[in-house]
Amino acid sequence: MIGTLRAKRRESLLLDLGNLADAQAKYGVGLQVAGPMKYDGLAPSPADLRMAPNLNALAAATQIPVVPEISRETAASPKALLLTRGDIRVAVASVGSSGPPEATKQLGRALRSLRASADLLVLVSRAGPEADALLASAPATRGCVDVIVEVEESGAPLEPRTVHTTAIVKASRGGQSVGVIDIGFEPARLAVQHHVFEVQPSLRPDTAGHDCVTKFLGEHPEHGEVSFEYLPKASWPYTPATECKRCHERETHAWQSSRHAAAPQTLSREGRYLRECLRCHSEYYRRTGQVAALPAGEGGVECVSCHGDRTLHSAGGPIDRKFAKTRVSVPVCRTCHNQERDPDFDYAKARERIRHW
After folding, report:
1. pLDDT band at 242 (very low <50, low <70, confident <90, very high)
2. Whose CB among 43, 45, 167, 328 lies 3.0–4.6 Å from 192's, allowing a Cys bridge?
3. What is the per-residue pLDDT across 316-330, written as a single tens digit (0 to 9) for each?
4. What's the whole-model pTM score?
5. Would you call 10 helix, strand, or coil by DSSP?
6. What pLDDT is attached to residue 93?
7. Phi, psi angles (nearest 5°) of residue 228
8. What CATH number has the domain spanning 2-208?
9. Rounded CA gap, 291 and 277, in Å?
10. Which helix (H) or strand (E) holds 132?
11. Where would I find the H helices in 139-259?
C-alpha cells in the first residue's frame, strides 16, 4: 500500500500489510529483498507472527519498522509508528490481529493519545468491516481515526467509504497489485481516493532482488515453482469425492458448499498457491506431489482427507458398510488445524461448520 499525502506538495508513505511468506525459511530472504525498497513500515499478520517469531529482529536487520498493535494489553500505553513527511506528521498503528477491538473508553483514550501526536492517524485493521465501522461510529472512539485500511479476507468493496469522519478503504491482497490511497487535506475534511494497480508481467524485476531470490531457490528447490498441469482423474492415486457422490449425493452436496471443498481456490485467490500451503489445502497435492490448477470442488480437502481411504468401499458399493462412516477425531483435524496455523481451533464448533451428515 502506498499512501500519498497532499498538502502544499505531494509526499508518500510505503507500507507492507503483511502475509509476507508461506514458510519460515522465506522470511529472511523476503525482508532482504524488501529492505532496499525503503518501506516505511510493516504491519505483520497473525500468520507472520506465528510463522516467524523472530520477525521483529529480521525486520530491524533490514531497517523496516514494524507497525505496533493496539490491543487490550497495550491500550493503556499505546504506541504507533510516527512518520514525518514535509510538515505532515502521521501516526500508524494496527488493530485486530489478536481479535476484534472493542470500542471502549480505554481504546478511545488510546486513539486520542496517538492522534494528539500527529496530524493524521492511520489504522491497519484485521478486525473486519463490521468492527471497523463500529470503531469509526461508536461514541467512545468516533472521530479518533482519520483512515482505516482493512486487511481482511472477505470480498469487501475496494471503493472507500466514510463512516462518521473516518475514511475506510480495503487493501488489495495476494501480491498481484498495489493499492494507492490518495489523501488530500481540504478545509474541514480529508478527501480520500483509493486506486488499485495490477502488477504487470512486463515489469522488469529489480536485478539485486531477482539475484537474491534466484540464489535462495537454488539452495532450496522445494520452494520453487512447478508445473500447473494435473493428471487425468482416472489416474489419481485415491478415490475422489466425485466417486463418493454416486451413493452419498446429499453428503457430497453439503460438502461442496464448505470451505474444505474450495480450499485450493482460497489459496489461488490469496496468491498463496504454494507447496507449503497445499500440504493442507489439497489432497491431490499430498498424494501426487504435484501443484495443479484444479477445477473448483476437486482436489481440495476431500472425503478421504478426513475419513481415510475407502477404495474397497467405493469399489464394492453399499454392501461393504464396514468401511463406511468413520467419526473424525481431534488428531485427524489437528493434522492441519495445528497450534501454529490455527491456535484457536475448536473441534466441536468446527464439526458443526462442516456438517454434511
Report:
1. confident
2. 167
3. 444 444 444 456 888
4. 0.65
5. strand
6. 96
7. -100, 10
8. 3.60.21.10
9. 11
10. helix 129-137
11. 207-219, 241-244, 249-256
